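TL;DR need structure tokens for one chain.
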Amino acid sequence: MMKNGLVISDSGPIISLALVGKLWLLEELFDEIKIPKSVWEELTSDSEKLFVDSISIFFKDKVSEISTFNEFLILMDKGESESLTLYRELNADFLLIDDLKARKIAEIYNINCIGTLGVLIASKRKGLIPNLKPEFEEFLLHKRFYGIELLNKILLENGEEII
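>> reply
TL;DR here they are.
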């Protein structure tokens, strides 16, 4: 199966994928995964957070520090801005990010974005997961921020029953 190069991730998609036990999909879809140090710190600073152990194990050798000026810091939070900066520094293929504002800014800079839902859709289409609906229901149960209309549209487009 052909993979999709280097992906840089912000914290939101990592939390969502860890929540449904699907961090492993990133290794199936991408040749390499990196996160900036600020995202690592955000994800691992509180040992009481859900899934911090699985996130720590998965990402411990995937952390990179940015080496150039973070010009995006005035526009978004530190993790998102360092993710965009690292994407540019490493000439990555994808930025894994869910935050709508940050994503719109990234796209202005011709950064190729994918979100958690895009990862799950690609995984289903490659036969890595059988269905999207159980994952979407888990997101809703844990109050992850995905609109029900969007989730139902994706389910219908992928031949599944709506929520």
